[in-house]
Amino acid sequence: MEDANQIQVPESFLALFAAPGGYKLTEPMAYVRERYELCEDMAQMLTEQAAARQFQLGVPGQEVLDRMLEGLAAEGSPLQPAEAGWVVKRLAELLSW
What we know:
It is a single chain. The protein has helices at about 10-15, 30-55, 60-70, 80-95. Helices cover about 60% and strands about 0% of the residues. The N and C termini lie far apart (about 40 Å). It has one domain (about 10-20, about 25-95). The mean pLDDT is about 95. The chain is built from four helices and no strands. The chain is elongated, with a radius of gyration of 15 Å. The protein is mainly alpha-helical.
């Protein structure tokens, strides 16, 4: 059966769900795609907030990213710790930090 979903999950995200050796996923692709969409949306949504926070606080981008990671990885977050790390890396990429 062919997968009709158009979303291309990047290798960097697939690696979060890769078994040791990196060839087989530990979760079904539909679940991985769902988690990717959540994480990508989160990164996109946080770009404006992160840029504003850097301007308001007058701190380096890395400090803002560190604080974002702390919040995203906190208890009660909808993200797993590895996903939170990916979101922050993607956020840095989107902001060219």
